[in-house]
Structures are given as structure tokens and as C-alpha cells.
């Protein structure tokens, strides 16, 4: 499991507005890559191009290529829903389906894919909740609403839901920004465990988090106010934080702006 992502000359648009310009990068399989940068610099927008979620916004389109191993996700005839099955996503705020039970939240994607066997769904529920380090906390109340859990548990439930359909890649858009410090550490520990099986990309405003959990870090910034976001520098996380090659990266990390 876990695929490599190659992005080539990617431009992202919302109608006529160019949000992200000319990104080329490689995301290694079974690793954690963090995207950092000031608000509004296109990191979340770019993240959403990796599973075609940006197309959900009217006018969202790209130029360039996103290759998952050797498959261009934007080639004619490629099914966007299939892409999102292979490249799962966890959002900023925990978003369990509020009226659904914990078990039904985990298996929602599986049932959408036509898997109906009760035994299979039960096994998948346990496997996914164990994978999200949540099983022991919820195994006695699988029939309770997902919304009855704490914020940190809800976010791990969303991770369980994402991994239940066995994606190759897991995208996380600031998954801890709505959580308390204890829950944040639980998610960070989980990310470290999950990278053995998945390629993980995480957008974070938290510089310490990026340095703790990621193998590689990409710094995005705006060329100027009103201009598109750009990839400024990408390298091993330790190099980005200790010895960046671009002065703008150093300024951002040391808190001189951003």
C-alpha cells in the first residue's frame, strides 16, 4: 500500500482566478509530507487537487499532471469518485455523519461501494477503528451516534472512515486545528503509525507539528498579494527547519512573517 505522487507543472484555477501556480513535486510512498505556509497561500487548495476535491467548488480546474504511480488522475475518462476512493481525505473539523452510529460512520464508504455482508462490515469496523486507535474506547457503544464522541475521538472516527475503504493515500487538511493538545498528540502518534501503510500528506499551521510528524516539508507562499500561491521550497523536514535554502522559508519558520 501507499503510492508515490508526482505533480508536474500544476496550475489550479477557480474560474479565471489562478489560485496556485506552477507546482512540481514528488511525494514519496509510505512517508509523511507536510505543507506549511501563511494563510491563503494555496496549500489546502493544492492538497485538494491530489484527489480532485477542488472540482467540487464551481469553476475548479487544473492544468498540468498529477500522477499516482503512473496513472494521471486528470487523464480523460478517469473517474473522480474512484480517485477519491484511492486518495482519502480528513478535513479540518471532525465531520462524522451526525445521525449515524459509530459503526455506520466507519462503514459508510464501504456500503456506498456495494459491500453489504454483515460479517464483513463488522470485521472492517473493528479493523478500521483499531487502525485509528479508537477501538478500545468505542467497542462497547458502536450503535451510539458518531456525534456523541469527543472532538478528538470524532477526528479519529473520520480517519477510521477514510481508511475503511483501503485508500493508498491519506490527505489531512489541518486535522488538529480544532482539537485540544492531548487529542492533537493522539492524532500525531496515529499519523506516525499509519505511514507504514499509507502515503500521508498533511497541511498544518503548526510548525512544531510539521517538524514532529513529517519526513519532508513543502513551504508555500504567495508571490505577492493577490497573486497565486507557489511552492517555494521542498526538502527533508530537518533541512527545511534547520538549514533552508531560500531566505523566505527561513523568515517564515523563524517567525519573521506569516
Fourth-tier CATH superfamily name of the domain at 5-97 and 169-254 = P-loop containing nucleotide triphosphate hydrolases
Oligomer: single chain
CATH architecture of the domain at 5-97 and 169-254: 3-Layer(aba) Sandwich
Instruction: Give the overall shape.
Output: globular
Order of strands across the main sheet:
6-7-8-3-9-10
Secondary-structure-derived class: alpha/beta
CATH topology of the domain at 5-97 and 169-254: Rossmann fold
CATH class of the domain at 5-97 and 169-254: Alpha Beta
- What's the rounded overall pLDDT mean? 94
User: Helical percent range?
Assistant: 25-40%
Strand content: 25-35%
Radius of gyration: 18 Å
Unreliable spans are none
- The strand count comes to 10
Largest pleated sheet: 6 strands, mixed
| SSE run | EEEHEEHEHHHHEHEHEEHH
Individual helix count:
10
User: Terminal Cα separation, in Å?
Assistant: 36 Å
Keywords: ATP-binding, Nucleotide-binding, Translocase, Transport
Domain ABC transporter: 5-247
GO molecular function, one term: phosphate transmembrane transporter activity
Protein name: Phosphate transport system ATP-binding protein
Break the fold down into its secondary structure elements and pairings.
Elements: E1 5-14, E2 17-27, E3 32-36, H1 43-49, E4 60-68, E5 71-72, H2 80-86, E6 87-90, H3 102-112, H4 118-131, H5 135-138, H6 151-164, E7 169-173, H7 181-194, E8 199-203, H8 207-213, E9 216-222, E10 229-236, H9 237-242, H10 247-253
Helix pairs in contact: 3-4, 3-6, 4-6, 6-7
